[in-house]
Amino acid sequence: MPTTPHPAARTSAVDDARRPAPAPPRTGTLALLCGTLFGLFGLLLTLVALRWGPLLSLDTALAERLHRTAVTAPAWTHRNRVLSDWVWDPMTMRAVLAAVVWLLLRRGERLLAVWVVATALLGTGLQQAVKALVGRARPVWPDPVDSASFAAFPSGHALTAMVTGALVLWLLRLHHVPARWRRAAGAVAAASVVGVGFTRVFLGVHWPSDVVGGWLLGGALVAGSVAAYHRYGATRVRPGGARRTGWRS
Predict the structure, then answer these.
(1) What is the pTM of this model?
(2) Which of 61, 209, 218, 247 is most buried by a 10 A CB count?
């Protein structure tokens, strides 16, 4: 009696190639996300500027608890300093974006490269402007384990990690990179965003709300930038260009 042949197993690479390309993000959804995040940032900014008591109490309680741990665990503190000052430092994040821009320029995607640069520069400019406007003091400890310059709110480390991670994930989706690589990149980006926020509070150079402010402002900026690109910038790219130049592996 003839047996029914088993279907041939397909590799993940073949599966990825046969899956439809991700749909472009909806500009309305992105605009709503941008407005929501920016509204939350504005609320937090107001509470910080007004020195709202419950927020300050929560900031102080969390910062003091982590600082006590940092003082009594020098080896753990050293690891956090390496992560904060080298792995997730804003200069490292900017180097990642510089490499991305170089790749885009090599592929002839000049508009997209300019868009990434403009978004990153706008993030740095907004961060410094808000710092100057609010002028929030950083935590002061009798036994500091690290130091930092400029005002505290919002955290530049948190904002830069958020902007870098979100832009890279958007570009991977835009170029139809296989899902397994996008998932891996998403895990790395999430670990970097959360991790750098933790290190800044653990090392005693930021209040927790500084970190949250950096995340909110960075997320709002990228959501607005991506929405603007798909609404205005993408129409300037020749039809079919993205399909011909998609990053596939």
Answers:
(1) 0.86
(2) 218
